[in-house]
Design a protein that fits this description.
This protein has 256 residues and is mostly beta strands. The chain is built from no helices and 19 strands. 31% of the residues are buried.
Length: 256
């Protein structure tokens, strides 16, 4: 299908893509301001939404991208003012500049599993005043300039513990007021009971762990690591980071 094939078709209300189409060309539905619904085959092989593909489709409300899409082009959904909910498939790697700029009613972003997104472009979610929450996994290596400009009420839940080196310096300038770093991280408090300070292990859930070095306590032999449930001690092995915070205790026996 050629570039801009249906642009400015201002009475077009619905469109269904064939399973064989692999990309939505640039400008395909540009300024189709009566377009409400877009449908895809269950066997769709679509991998790319082109630049400006749905720009100014201000009545577009129903679209669910197939689980094969890897790229949303720049300005792809620019000022799609009727989008309320958007599904981002697990295959998605890149949202280019201004991807969802000015989507006035966009409230909810739903992610496929697993999360593969790596790139959020400049102003990608700017001027989305109703956006309530957004999860950014540690797969995201780039967030562009003012990606959330004037999206003040959004809550950003970010797996990274601080700004990754690849993110723009002003990635959140004039953007989200609430940024929660270290989401999906947990803490293991290791109590050594030998006069030394507790060890704090702070890692993402599922991270492979290495046990601390065996502690030394004068007059005692170290016998292992244990958890305590208030009644009894249970042997503990450092394997992967658990889904809940945990306290682990060193146990000793008196040296004969």
């Amino acid at each position: 299908i050629g570039t801009g094939l249906f642009n400015n078709c201002r009475s077009l209300e619905s469109f269904t893509f064939s399973a064989s189409l692999v990309t939505i060309p640039d400008n395909m539905f540009y300024n189709c301001d009566e377009l409400v619904s877009v449908y895809f085959s269950e066997t769709s092989t679509l991998y790319s939404v082109g630049n400006l593909a749905f720009m100014y489709c201000e009545n577009l409300a129903n679209i669910t991208l197939p689980d094969t899409v890897t790229t949303i082009g720049y300005n792809a959904f620019f000022q799609c003012n009727s989008l309320v909910e958007m599904y981002l498939p697990s295959s998605l790697i890149k949202i280019d500049n201004y991807g969802f700029y000015g989507c006035d009613l966009l409230t909810t972003i739903i992610y496929g599993d697993p999360y593969s997104l790596e790139y959020i472009g400049n102003y990608a979610f700017s001027w989305c005043p109703e956006l309530n929450e957004l999860f950014i996994a540690d797969t995201v290596t780039y967030v562009g300039i003012r990606a959330f400009d004037n999206t003040r009420d959004v809550i950003l839940n970010i797996e990274a513990t601080s700004k990754p080196a690849g993110w723009a310096a002003d990635w959140n300038a004039n953007g989200a007021l609430t940024v929660n770093w270290g989401v999906n991280h947990r803490t293991i408090t290791v109590v050594l009971d030998n006069g030394e300070s507790d060890i704090l292990i702070y890692e993402k859930i599922g991270t492979v762990l290495t046990a601390p070095a065996d502690p030394v306590k004068v007059g005692f032999d170290f016998t292992g690591w244990f958890t305590f449930d208030g009644v009894s001690y249970t042997p503990y092995s450092f394997t992967t980071m658990p889904e809940e915070d945990l306290t682990v205790y060193a146990q000793y026996t008196v040296t004969p």
